Structures are given as structure tokens and as C-alpha cells.
Amino acid sequence: MPWIRNKPVRIVMRWQLIVTTAMVLALGLLWGFHGAASALLGGVVSIISAAAFSAIVSRYQGVTAGGALITALKAEAVKIIVMVILLWLVLTLYKDVVAVGFIGTFALTVLIFGMALFVTDDPKAAGIKQFE
After folding, report:
1. pTM to 2 decimals?
2. 46/108 Cα distance (integer angstroms)
3. Disulfide check for 106: which of 23, 34, 42, 116 has CB 3.0–4.6 Å away?
4. In this predicted structure, what is the pLDDT of residue 28?
């Protein structure tokens, strides 16, 4: 993910991938192949929509608060549109989807993406000592 210049988004997307992998393993043991595939698809829907969001946000070059707000709103709109389309595609094309695993993994990874607000870019604010 080197094309994502926003460090908090990059960290949160990594956590989305970790949680998706854990859910695939857990639901694979619980419900077999279709449970694992459903968890994978739920996580992938969220990760792809987060990647669309970060692609738009990473292209922003301006310095005004208004420009940043407009870019964030555009990115959020694209993220929601991508989510809706991918959710629709999975639910219509994959007949053996385990809905609990699919929606559960999707919801969990979407909540994790919201945690990007709590990730800081500044190592000093996080209490990390730097050597100069």
C-alpha cells in the first residue's frame, strides 16, 4: 500500500486485513468453506471501499480547510457507493453466502476503518521517543 500516503488510513487498512484473516479462519472452522468465503468477501468489500476512499484523499494537494472538507466528503461518497455496489454484487451472485459471517465481518471491518481518527501521524503525540 505505498500509494496510500495517509499513515492513519494505512495502519487501519492493515488492521482490517488482520481482522479479515482472523474471521476467515474462525468462520472457516465454524461453518466450513462457505463461512470462510463469506467472511473473506465481507472483509474485501470493506477493504476495497477503504482503498477507494484513501485513493481520493491521497490525491489532495491543497491547503485550505474547505478544500480538505470537500475532498473528504467526495471520498466518503465514493466509499459508500463502492460499498453498496459490492454488497449488492456479493448478495446477488454468491448464493451460498453465510449472511451472518459476511455481514458480521463487513461491519467489524467498517468499524475498524472508523478508528483512523484515533491514529496519529505525530510520533511525539503518541508518546514515542525519537532519537535525533
Report:
1. 0.83
2. 9
3. 42
4. 96
- Residue 76 belongs to domain spanning: 7-118
Quick one: pLDDT at residue 125?
A: 54
DSSP symbol at 121: S
Residue 80 lies in a domain: yes
User: Element (H or E) spanning 67, and its range?
Assistant: helix 65-93
Q: Which amino acid is at 24?
A: V
**Residue type at 57?**
V
Q: Residue 53 CB: number of other CB atoms within 10 A?
A: 26
Confidence at residue 46, expressed as pLDDT on a 0 to 100 scale: 95
126 occurs within a structural domain: no
Does residue 77 lie within any of the structural domains? yes
Please report, as a single letter, which amino acid is at residue 50: A
Q: For residue 129, what is its C-alpha cell?
A: 521517543
- Domains of the chain: total: 1
Is residue 92 domain-resident?
yes
